[in-house]
């Protein structure tokens, strides 16, 4: 899913906005796209559907060609959503740390 961060005079927001009417899978695709957009990470969502059971979602974060990849096995929607939150928090903290170190070098 393609997302864009739109800058405004009061901050920013993502377009398209999260639509609660979307399926769980589409919501996770949107969330993964937002995290990828904001962090520069490559994120692949892998849905697993079994007849009569709730869908589960695995993910790959990163790229083997660029230094490695982290994967999670299939998890329920809420756990997969929380995983993306954690990835975003960690990546943004690292980006801030790198920016601070760069500023100290100049």
Written overview of the protein:
This protein is of the alpha+beta class. The protein has one domain (about 5-105). It has helices at about 25-40, 75-105; strands at about 5-10, 10-15, 45-50, 55-65, 70-75. The protein has a three-stranded antiparallel beta sheet with strand order 3-4-5. A two-stranded antiparallel ribbon has the order 1-2. A hairpin with a 4-residue loop joins strand 4 (about 55-65) and strand 5. Helix 1 (about 25-40) runs parallel beside helix 2. The radius of gyration is 16 Å and the shape is globular. The mean pLDDT is about 90.
Topology:
Layout: E1 4-8, E2 11-15, H1 24-39, E3 43-48, E4 56-63, E5 68-75, H2 77-105
Antiparallel strand pairs: 1-2, 3-4, 4-5
Helix pairs in contact: 1-2
Salient structural properties:
single chain, 106 residues, alpha+beta, two-stranded antiparallel ribbon, 2 helices, 5 strands, globular
Number of strands: 5
Mean pLDDT value: 92
Low-confidence stretches: none
- Shape assignment: globular
Q: For the CA atoms, what is the radius of gyration? A: 16 Å
Helix percent band: 40-55%
Derived structural class: alpha+beta
Provide the spatial order of strands within the biggest beta sheet: 3-4-5
Count of helical regions: 2
| Strand and helix order | EEHEEEH
**Number of structural units classed as domains:** 1
Spatial separation of the terminal alpha carbons: 38 Å
């Amino acid at each position: 899913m393609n997302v864009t961060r739109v800058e405004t005079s009061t901050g920013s927001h993502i377009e398209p906005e999260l639509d609660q009417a979307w399926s769980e899978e589409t919501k996770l695709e949107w969330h993964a796209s937002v995290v990828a957009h904001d962090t520069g990470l490559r994120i692949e969502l892998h849905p697993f559907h079994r007849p009569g059971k709730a869908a589960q979602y695995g993910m790959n974060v990163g790229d083997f060609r660029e230094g490695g990849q982290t994967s999670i096995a299939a998890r329920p929607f809420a756990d997969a959503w929380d995983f993306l939150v954690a990835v975003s928090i960690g990546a943004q903290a690292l980006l801030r740390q790198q920016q601070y170190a760069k500023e100290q070098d100049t």
